Amino acid sequence: MNGGLVRWHVTMSVDGFIAGPGDSMDFLSGPWTHGPAADEVVAGAGAVLVGRRSYEVGRALGQKVYGGAWSGPILVLTHRPDEVDDPDVRCVSGAAAQVVAEARQAAAGRAVVLIGADVARQCVRAGLVDDLLIHVVPVLLGSGVRLFADPDVSPVRLSPLGQQDPVRLPDLRYAIRPTRLH
Fold it and tell me: How far, in Å, CA of 60 to CA of 120, rounded?
């Protein structure tokens, strides 16, 4: 079922940020857990294609992909093909179609998971993304790294997958508790 898919998997704030100011990931700490949809992505992943900025942020925080619950080939899309001291990491550069083809080969028939705003933007622009799974953290950040920003792309229509009604908008309903994250 996941073979060959290109999946964009991301966690964001309610106001659409995947990282806070200065690439802060503090908003992710809390009592949150991921459900079966995240488990499906992890189980079906054959390779991860991550942008350089996201890779560096995760590395600086000492994070492994999916907290170490997944291992496999990691391709870092970069214009600076620096040496990376990790046998599972390979730097790649080029057009989105070229690097996705490399990632698919590394995935060996399993899904390629995209991590990072810029790599995902490039792949959406090139029409290479099959599905998108977003986990929404109940917090408003106000600024940071947007989920998707590309003024040169026409609106991209998304179709619900799974048990969702294709014409009913999903509801997110929260009480507002004025507390600071820091």
Answer: 21
